[in-house]
Amino acid sequence: MNGKLGVLIHGAGWVSTQHVDAFKTNPHTDVVAISSRKLSSAQARADEAGLDVPCFDSLDKALQTQGVDIVSICTPQHVHTENVIAAARAGKHLVIEKPLCNSVSDGRAMAAAIRAAGVKTVVCFVLRWNPLFQTIKRLLADDALGHVYAVETGYQSYNGDWWSGYGDARTKAGGVSSMLVGGCHAVDALRWFADPTEFGAADPVEVFAYAGGARGSSTRQYNPSTNDWHEGEPLEYEGCEMALVKFSNGVIGKITVNHECIQPYTFPLEVFGDRGTIRDNRVWSHKFPGQKDWVELPCIGPDSADVAHHPFQGEMDHFVDCILTDCESHCNFEDAWKTHEVVFAAQECYRTGQPVHLPL
Asked: Which helix (H) or strand (E) holds 37?
């Protein structure tokens, strides 16, 4: 390869700060342009990052910038489909923020465009690069738990206007569901730990789910950062969802997504095997003869909702390596779509009251 890969950051919200920093740090990439729905937002992001690059208020205009090899999609989820299709048709490799999209039909349209273009993709289920997640996967691959038969994950984070994306994501049209907006991280973690190999994610084959909670259409909002209450815009969908998932390898799983819990952010995790158990960062394993207490893993865990805490550098470095070595990411569009199918299957289950078989 001559020179560096050029990156266009599309979308200038909170998460884009981490995409910019990661690509600035990678030795094989340069950020060459930034675009957003507002030119002022794109320019502000460039100024903040100390980048003297062209800025645009249109993805179509930005795609014409010379030297763009990668487009990083950081826009709100309801416009991902049009963004991804446009960038794929322009022949650009794609980093796509989660959630991928808001419907099955949108996902199929994105998949068709990506396949036709033959471009590389990675979806930002960034917790796959979290140190605790990586350690647990290596333990599973090393048979620390024996045969894994059950996994439970949770996403507990009050969804309110403390978060800059709340305005778009709180609506049914913009956000769809709690499980899609943020809880898809827990769905992906469930798939990730239901596969005992280091870089595999299990294939879901059946889903049954319930949605509920106490928040309803209340305008009273909690701020977990300040631990107080205020009036604000309501969620237009249920704040709490629970789902059971069966996987093709026989593992069963449970996901709880709670966007109305009055507490700090937490991401509970349990993995059960026939020779050991993992609870968050604690391990009980046949690998530790005479064990009398849990062994604690001194790793950074998924214990913050702040995007600055998330391991975007690891994800972007991985994706650049995939491009340079012409290989597919374990978290490419095709794989990440299986995570999203669980979310959309839950929506179908609410409508029918029946288990939903996958693939959709």
From this structure: none
